[in-house]
Amino acid sequence: MTKTRRLEDLWSHIHCLGVLADTGSFTAAARRLQISKASVSQRIVELEQAAGVPLVRRTTRSVSLTEAGASLVDHTASAYQRIEAGFSAVRDLSDGPRGVLSVTAPVALGRQVIAPLIPGFLARFPDVRIQLELSDHLASLATEGFDLAIRHVAGVPDTHVASLICETRSVLVATPQYLSAHGTPRTPTDLEGHNCLHYLRRSGGATWSFESLDGDKRVAVPVRGSFTANNSEVLREAAAGSVGIALLPDFSAGQALQRGTLVEVLPGWRVVGDYAERLYAVRPYTPRVPLTVTSFVQYLRQAIPAAEGLAAGIAPHAHG
């Protein structure tokens, strides 16, 4: 005979079901709860045994709730949200931020800009642990369990909150050796005669668009080259090998320009519409923002504009 579980023994199990409903997978739920996937599965099994009805539909490709499971989550979700908000408020009364902060960032940006700054943050806030995942995949923060995403994007969904960290810009670069051998472009249309190294996009052909610094002229140039890649660090290294002219975000080009291994091409023109011109910290909308999240965003706002290499060696263009 199965022993009846006391309801108070199942609070964490019910919360686990709610997280599973939010994330849509046992793996993502385990990540958010910081327990193993097997533990998540075991809690759901025990909860179903105590309830006496199936709560989750499992297939090889997806996880969804049964009518009973959805009903249980609907009745309890707001209570757990209030508990979480109340606990966060109490925890924030401590001397500073604490707990785990899960962050995602693009590979090149994360390696070159974010990762070097993390030791300074951890030294300032020793009670915080950071989990940083570098991926060019645009993660769904709610379903994949991230607290924050650092993104080089033009805009974000209405369901998320974006905090501007800093302005960025794109820059054309090449080695002095390449320009000596092949000539220095004087106008954007001169690029049609050059080996142009561009970011690999699914749309196929590449077009670089330019605006004169006074804003009076706009030019769109179809470009071709012997090498494309979906990572700005890789494009920078190809340009550094005198393969051709590369279009890079400033955080990838800055240090090489400062050292003189790369030089800016067409400095009298501004590249528009290729890479985004702003760096954001993006988080899901919540009524109350954890102190750990706000502290990290504030830290990045202060540290990144001063970080050597983000725009080092690049004179800012005037906008407008």
UniProtKB/TrEMBL annotation:
UniProt cross-references to Pfam families, sorted A to Z: HTH_1, LysR_substrate
Coiled-coil regions listed: none
Keyword Protein biosynthesis part of the UniProt annotation: no
Entry keyword Signal: no
Domain HTH lysR-type as annotated: residue spans: 9-66
UniProt keywords, alphabetically: DNA-binding, Transcription, Transcription regulation
Family membership: Belongs to the LysR transcriptional regulatory family.
Name recorded for this polypeptide: HTH-type transcriptional regulator DmlR
Taxonomic source organism: Achromobacter mucicolens
Taxonomy of the source species: Bacteria, Pseudomonadati, Pseudomonadota, Betaproteobacteria, Burkholderiales
